[in-house]
Every structure is written in C-alpha cells, then in structure tokens.
TrEMBL record:
It comes from the Bacteria. This is DMSO/TMAO reductase YedYZ, molybdopterin-dependent catalytic subunit. It comes from Paraburkholderia diazotrophica. Residues 108-253 form the Oxidoreductase molybdopterin-binding domain.
Length: 264
C-alpha cells in the first residue's frame, strides 16, 4: 500500500489515493469505533494541522477543518509535503486546562510505577534494549509548544519536553532504514505505529514532561510520543515497548478503519 512508502513518495501519495482516503473517512463515520467517541463530531479535518495553515485560533481551525473535507488540490499539496514543520506557538497560547483523551475514562488512566518502569526496544536495533526512566531523563532534552489535533474534531495547544526521537533511536542502535516504528502502551494494549521518516522528523519527541513538570498520568506518564505532524491518536501515551520493523504494524484505531497515514 502506498501509505507504507518512504518520505520521497509521500508528496504524491494523496494525489493518487485521495479518493480511498475519503472512502476511509466515510467508513469511519459508520464504523462501530465511531460510537465509542460519543456524540462529538468526528472529522477527518484534524489533519488540517499538517496543512501548515496558520492555525492560531479556534475559528481558523474550524475553517481549516471544513476546507480539508473538500480535499482540494491546494490542501493536498500542503498536507503531504514531508518537509513541512508543524506550526509552533507562543506560551500565551497554551490551552489551559489541556484536555485529556483516551479510549476510556480519566478514572481508568493506568498507573505506571516509575521505579520499576522499563522501556523495551525490540526488532531491528542493535543497541541498548532496556531503558530505565532515569536513563531517558539523562538524554538531551528539548521542548516545544505545538497543537494536538484529535480526529474527534477538537484541538489544543500544549508544551511537551523530552528527547528527540531520532536521537533516542540512534542511541538504541535502531536500523533507520527500516520502514516502521511501532509503539505499545501500558493501557489495555493501545498501540500505534509511524513510518521511519516521521520517527526521524525533527519535531517528533519522546516526551517526559508536560508544561515543565513530569508528565502526569492523564497525559501519559511516564512517556508520550509527541508527533505534531500527525493526528492525536498517533501520539501514544504510557509507552512501554518500541519495535523497529519492516512488517506493517497497524494500530488500535488504525485497525478499526482510521487512515494509517493521518498526517504529513
Ligand atoms: N496509550 C494511549 N495513547 C493515546 C490514547 C489512548 O487511548 N491510549 N489516545 C490518543 C488520542 S485519540 C488522543 S487525542 C491523545 C490525547 O492526549 P491527551 O490526553 O494528552 O490530550 O492521546 C492519544 N494517545
Ligand atoms: Mo484523538
């Protein structure tokens, strides 16, 4: 499938597969997974982020969400430019309080024990396989303020800090010519996967903090992969295992009909 191809081919991806993506979106609206989302509007428009429009307020976002549903050529060209950075924002624009979202209620957020926590790396990697939290905290950290866009039709701006995922993968000895990175979570087998160009993207961070403090449980303690070029559901929280692989890994939502690419 075209969505599994590498960065250079992503530019032409939507031009070729736009119709099937629209079909996917229509299927989403009918799928049983849709019901889990309650009455909130599901829109494919989340990927508007990636359009690089200047999404500085909710009105602009909504306009973008509407625009995207038409999938005109301009939007397509913007969306799937792999060199494009997700927009960043000033501190004054952070959404407070930042929303919580998962496929279960906030009361069911998993409690991960920091002392015994280990991140496992498997698959096509020759480096260190098991990482304790302190070892991850000792890696070079950076932070960014970006917008998380949920496929359910809301978005919010937040600040996350952590290790560049490309840096982590390098230290883990990952084979960066592999096609996919899959990410498995502590909460009831949630998982997702991204293509290697996205994993290596400069803004993809393995985050350990939210707004300057240790990432709280609701936002994914001990760690959330922040991928601002992708929809919210491709930003896994509570990651416990990372696999580098050439086999298409799918994901929790992806396997229920969400478009795997879901971003730029
Ligand atoms: N482990 C895990 N990660 C997850 C989810 C989840 O249910 N479990 N939900 C995803 C979805 S749909 C969204 S929109 C964001 C929400 O992140 P937040 O709670 O920090 O706002 O987390 C994503 N990552
Ligand atoms: Mo989401």
């Amino acid at each position: 499938m075209a969505i599994r191809k590498q960065t250079a081919q992503q530019g032409t991806f939507l031009a070729t597969h736009g119709e099937s993506i629209i079909r996917d979106a229509q299927r989403e609206l009918k799928s049983p997974a849709r019901r889990l989302f309650g009455r909130r509007l599901l829109t494919l428009g989340g990927i508007a982020l990636l359009s690089g429009c200047d999404l500085t307020n909710d009105k602009a976002v909504n306009t973008a969400l509407r625009r995207i549903s038409f999938f005109n050529d301009d939007v397509q060209a913007l969306l799937f430019d792999p060199n494009r950075l997700a927009p960043t924002y000033p501190e004054s624009m952070i959404t407070r309080p930042f929303p919580f979202n998962a496929f279960y209620d906030i009361d069911d957020v998993p409690e991960v024990d920091a002392a015994t926590y280990r991140l496992q790396v498997s698959g096509l990697a020759r480096g260190k396989r098991t990482w304790a939290l302190d070892e991850l905290r000792a890696l070079p950290q950076e932070s960014q303020i970006t917008r998380l866009i949920c496929v359910e039709g809301w978005s919010a701006i937040g600040r996350w800090g952590g290790v560049r995922f490309s840096e982590f993968l390098r230290r883990a000895g990952a084979d960066t010519t592999a096609k996919y990175v899959s990410l498995h979570c502590a909460d009831y087998n949630y998982w997702t996967s991204i293509d290697m160009p996205t994993a290596l993207h400069a803004q993809t961070l393995l985050t350990l903090t939210y707004d300057g403090d240790v990432l709280p449980p609701k936002y994914g303690f001990p760690m959330k992969l922040r991928v601002p070029t992708k929809l919210g559901f491709k930003n896994p929280k509570h990651i416990v295992a990372i696999e580098i692989t050439n086999q298409y890994p799918g994901g929790y939502w992806e396997n229920q009909g969400y478009n795997w690419f879901s971003g730029s």
